[in-house]
Amino acid sequence: MKNILFFAILLALTTTLSASATINILLFNEENIVAAADGRIILDENSRIVTESSNKIMRIGKSAAVSWNGSAALFSGKPKPQKIQHIISDYKIQRNIEDDIIISPKNIADSLNIHFSQILDNDSLNNKNIKFSLFIYGYTENQERQICLFTFPSENAANNNDNNLMGKIEMILPYDQTGMTIKGETEVFTRLIYGYDNRLENLECLTEEIKDEINYTLPYYLLSTRDLIDFAVFIIETTIKMNRFNYKSNDGVGGDIDIAVITPHEGFRWIQLDGN
User: In the predicted model, what is the mean pLDDT of residues 255-274?
Assistant: First the structure.
């Protein structure tokens, strides 16, 4: 029994749960935000599947949510790793955030930065296995859409004197813009929609004129909520199916597909959770 316990502790201290090959998609128009994510978590060192039903979309109050990708569990000097979902759940409990409370995504991002910075220490900055990002999105009390990207660690976290905050927050889209943003395993998406591998982005011959010519143009402002949902599922399912035949893939995208919609009036609602 002691040997089993020792092995379990050793495994927890030496491996990092990763969802770095996951897909997080946000699509948005003037009416709503559609969020979608796969459910797979893998072990980094051997791409072994841990679960197919991890919930990478988490509701925050009435009209906001968080989607995460990267390290699925964080090591911060404690006996066992802390799961991203549990850290965010604790954040909601500590701040008494109920489902009928409206908090702006920017305020959520700022307070989550403080929350994570209190949990993690400087050793975490030196652990290259710990790297994650969060989409934080939704609507303010004035029904203005906000989409933030929280990245840990920030490039200058070690030298950050602003209350020792370790993450970087950026507003990634104007409130009146329609379109989409995506994080995680984007290779299949960029080849399909943009027409080229994103590693070719800086080639001199790949001019803006050529990009405009080969890119698919999607009229997000004309698409219905059902269209946005169908497109998100299409991208995730296509990535899963393509990675099946790509021997270079770490097979990190898969499992259940979760889908949520946020509207400025009705707030957050699940369309599909745990594949149902």
Answer: 95
